[in-house]
Amino acid sequence: MSSRTSLQVSPAPSGSSNALVPPNLALLADPPVRQMDGPAMDYFVIEMVNTLRESAAVATARSKRIEQEMIEAGLIPPPAPAPPALPLKKESARDSVTSLPSRTGSAAGKTVVDEEEEAVRVRLETIGMHVGANFTERLCRDRPLFSETLDAIKFICKDIWAACWDKQVDNLRTNHRGVYVLQDNAFKPIARISSWEGRAEAIKRAKLYAAMPGGIIRGALSRMGFNGTVTPEITSLPQCTFQIKLPKGA
Amino acid sequence: MPPSLRLNAVAFISPQNHPILIRTFSPQDDPIKYHYIAHTSLDVIEERVTSAGKSVECYLGLLYSMEDVAIYGYITPLRVKIVLALALSDAVVKDVEVTMIFKALHMAYYSAICNPFLKLEAANDTSSDISPFLLVGSPKWRKFRQRVDEISRVAGNATATTSAT
């Protein structure tokens, strides 16, 4: 299997180039790059989504149970009972008012699934934010300061994309008012997804795999000082767009 | 031969201008003096960064010098400032050596900040980055302090070890 470097920093210079600096200091300043097998990262990300799905289901079941106990103990008022005869539309409208998992009955199957997807998505995005923030620290080591916001976005499009997914962003659009759209025509994490249920189903499932990359971008932006939101969108399969909304004044 | 560089103090300051770590290595000085020095360096750094406009280099060089210390500054692209106080001496201080020290300090900071358990409680709140930094005295940052001590020790032995290649 081919290996690609996990970091794009060149390894420490050999001792003869800086004869004035003691080798210990040079080693501390530029530690040798540790390399990792490239595909291992791809497998890890795929498996992570499945594992987190199960763990999120356990966590929501636990919080549901606690809430049920609190309802029985009379600490919080019981939610409005949802008679199963009502159509699904009305039920979900009422459910949006009550607290998170307090639902009864069978007809709420669809909304429960969405809520679990949301929990997994939030976990993936948080992990992505940690990874993105710290990775940006590392990548920013040898470059000068960012002169403006567009410079920071271009850094994301080139350096982070190249380090994580081996290519650069294909298209960057902006409306010059804080909204940037990054388009990648062959986004690596979802490039090989296919589903036996057909195209539409594959696209639906692929949304979750784009959550962590969205988190990476968001983490990188937050470390650079821009607290915005990142929304991944997938319309046709290997193509993915990320919409970055930065707050006013950025 | 006496060592050419004596680190008196190192200070890390966050992008929101909160102190992260101020570590002093000279036993005869009051640590509060270096807090004051770090604070005044902030103004000098701000002035240098805003006046430089496009394409500012990370290493800011000598900021100013007081009665017995020379202050050097460094700003990372993510706006973390590192301030170094070196004891004034007659020996020539090489720029490349100070830059190396700053890079080593940046690596130590990066290794400490990458710890995912540092901000375990603050889940999605990305706007207030100051909360983990206020806990710098706590054991989670111990490794960071050790690394900074190591860097100062290595730099202090600068001329004692010749580069054998």
TrEMBL record, chain A:
Biased composition (Polar residues): 1-17, 95-105
GO CC, alphabetical: cis-Golgi network; trans-Golgi network; TRAPP complex
Source domain of life: Eukaryota
InterPro entries the record matches: NO_sig/Golgi_transp_ligand-bd, TRAPP_component, TRAPPC6/Trs33
CDD domains, per database record: TRAPPC6A_Trs33
Coiled coil segments of this chain: none
Stretches for region Disordered: 1-23, 75-112
GO biological process terms, semicolon-separated: endoplasmic reticulum to Golgi vesicle-mediated transport
Biased composition, class Pro residues, residue ranges: 76-86
Similarity field: Belongs to the TRAPP small subunits family. BET3 subfamily.
Entry-linked PANTHER family: GEO08327P1 (PTHR12817:SF0), TRAFFICKING PROTEIN PARTICLE COMPLEX SUBUNIT 6B (PTHR12817)
Protein name as it appears in the record: TRAPP complex subunit trs33
The organism of origin for this protein: Crucibulum laeve
UniProtKB/TrEMBL annotation, chain B:
InterPro entries in UniProt: Longin-like_dom_sf (IPR011012), Sedlin (IPR006722), TRAPPC2L (IPR044760)
GO BP terms in the entry: endoplasmic reticulum to Golgi vesicle-mediated transport
Domain of life: Eukaryota
GO cellular component: cytoplasm
PANTHER family per the UniProt record, alphabetical: TRAFFICKING PROTEIN PARTICLE COMPLEX SUBUNIT 2 (PTHR12403)
Similarity comment: Belongs to the TRAPP small subunits family. Sedlin subfamily.
Protein name per its UniProtKB record: Trafficking protein particle complex subunit 2-like protein
Organism of provenance: Crucibulum laeve
